[in-house]
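Holo model, nicotinamide-adenine-dinucleotide. Inputs:
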Amino acid sequence: MNTDKPRLQQITVLGATGSIGSSTLDVIRQHPDRYQVFALTAHSRMAELQALCIQHRPRFAVVADAASAKRLQSDLHTAGVATAVLFGQQGLAEVAAHPDVDAVMAAIVGAAGLPSAMAAVQAGKKILLANKEALVMSGALFMSAVREHGAQLLPIDSEHNAIFQCLPCNYAEGLAPVGVRRILLTASGGPFRNSSYAELERVTPAQACAHPNWSMGQKISVDSATMMNKGLELIEACWLFAARPTQVEVVIHPQSVIHSLVDYIDGSVLAQLGNPDMRTPIAHAMAWPERIASGVAPLDLFTLARMDFIAPDLQRFACLRLAIAAAQAGAAAPIVLNAANEVAVAAFLQERIRFTQIPQLIEDVLSLQMSTTVHDLENVLEIDQQARAYANTWLNKQSITAGVGL
Ligand code: NAD
Ligand code: MG
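Output:
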């Protein structure tokens, strides 16, 4: 009888202190016979990262800068933990591409997560992609790197994970989906689904971050409230499932139980359902093609009782309109959209602009002429920086001409 235990899969969690990072660690904790934490990374909340290192004893931890690395290294040493602490984008890329790593959870928020996600792809890893901004910014480059390096890409975003479950793709072989008429991308509609434009003008950051169905980080919560999140997801879906923007239809489904659907040309419509808890897509992607328990309660259809479907209002939710236009324009437009949105969301959270000024800032930055060549990652990051500079100039002018007065 073979008594050898199967080798534990070594997992790097990029963005370990975030909402997705915590859910990932929760799934890992439920399966100590399958997974071991190889590296944990965080940008702030050092005490939390330290506690996670004491609990999981990873080989590496990665923080923002040298000074924080030195402090954490010394604290971990005192606690008797042998984790080596690295820092910066270099450190993130190192733990994403390390030869001993089997899978990388890419759960850093925003453009900051792109280089390390790309490093994991270029090292041919199994990549569990939560960071949607990476695909929005560099979809063509990212997907061709996946094919070139034979990486295994598994979507974590609940909608894309649902679509993947209804439409499995072998990215490494570059197979285009066959017989798909439409992808129906569901959206909760966020906390202001029924708010008037006048009400949207007075929305506070606390209200915008209080999502009715999902508990998430601040940036994605604001994106859900403006529906930019669905716009970014539409672009993400086009890259992941080789779809044209016109093939992806956004459907508001306030109960967030159907996570998305695929409509085939023979009239079959496949959907994935479940309680709104990110541990389901995380466990699915971690174990794929097997299945493991996630800790999510079974769906009770009798409690649910009804499901509603509503078309989105592109006037009140201008961010979704702008994202659809950027998806159709392609090239640099999605990079500019994403960068301007990140600046706008941060400014809204700091109460520098109103909620309704988020799409205004993005539209103004999108209308500016800027570099459009996107050959490599360097171009992507240059356009991102240029768009942020324009967005910051817009913000400075705005705060000189008008106080926000929320
Ligand atoms: P979060 O804000 O809760 O966590 C973000 C993590 O990234 C933290 O660990 C933080 O330390 C790290 N981080 C932030 N800025 C960084 C930087 N400049 N450099 C390095 N690390 C940095 O975010 P979240 O809600 O967990 O979302 C993470 C990603 O997953 C986002 O791209 C989001 O769109 C995507 N996503 C999240 C959910 C969700 O339910 N939360 C669902 C689908 C997709
Ligand atoms: Mg989503």
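The domain at 9-155 is CATH 3.40.50.720 (Rossmann fold). The chain has 17 helices and eleven strands.
Archived with the compound record.
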